[in-house]
Amino acid sequence: MNLRLKAVADKQGGVFSRRQALGSGYTPDQIQDRLRDGRWERVRHGQYVERADLKHLPPWERQLLLHRRLVYAAVNAMRPGTAVVSHHSALVIHNVPVWDVDLNEVQLTRSNSARTGAAAGVRHHHGRLTSDAVIEFDNLTVTSVARSLVETAATASFEAAVVSADAVLRNRLVPDAQLRSVVAQTEFWPGGPTVRSALGFASPLAESVGESRLRVLMHQQGLPVPELQAVFHDADGFIGRVDFYFPEHRTIVEFDGMSKYTDGSSVVLIQEKAREDRLRALGLQVVRLTWEDLAHPDRTAMLIRRAFAWSRETHQAG
């Protein structure tokens, strides 16, 4: 890619149009040659990127990068000022975690057109956006974090809404007053009840997507409300901070994401086992759960309830 086109693409998430390539000095035959031999890839009709090897990225990061490309390509294919990136597409641009949303479909809001629905990989929403709901970010016109969050919550599942809401609160991306103001505007929205229930349930203490999903699972399975990030000590001092603690059942639940042991270090594994042994020595039950367990909510809830029962039997016997 020549420097002129690279400067254009760098401002658009790596995406450039056929018109921009022609304007940067490429001929139609040169464009076709680069698409044919794989130096360039087509993102959507008339919108391209330079090929890059993405195999080193974890699957979820690769999906987010590809969605960002789709967003830039969709916007670049439209007349400037005619659309605002919104809903979960805006959350992705704001680097807010998302879950269980369609990353193959770009979300745009258009106030100057009555067009709605999906077409060519883009879902068009019609709506009026106030000036405080729209910002410029990464060379895109996008809805604010607060507006993007409530739009996503109104159209997604409770679980998806909580995942993003927890992250927004955890990273302090929106002042409380602003978030309350935006939530109040959803009173008569079709998805308003989900917005209010998800935001009411959200917590800044959930530290990952997995922990947020596990919170929702436990809530929907009727388990007691746990303490988040409880701290434990013994006679030797600080043991650690745990993900979930049920004090009335003397049970700890830990969520093990993929990153915890990725270095393959035996030292890390030994330290984690020693930490767990010290917790058990305090008379606590410890349940460890993984991403796989989230796919089986009934079984996972049963494991936690079984730990409750074991704790109760142990203390009655003692």
TrEMBL record:
InterPro entries: AbiEi_N, Restrct_endonuc-II-like. Residues 4-49 form the AbiEi antitoxin N-terminal domain. Pfam families: AbiEi_4. Gene3D superfamilies: VSR Endonuclease. This is AbiEi antitoxin N-terminal domain-containing protein. It comes from Kribbella sindirgiensis.
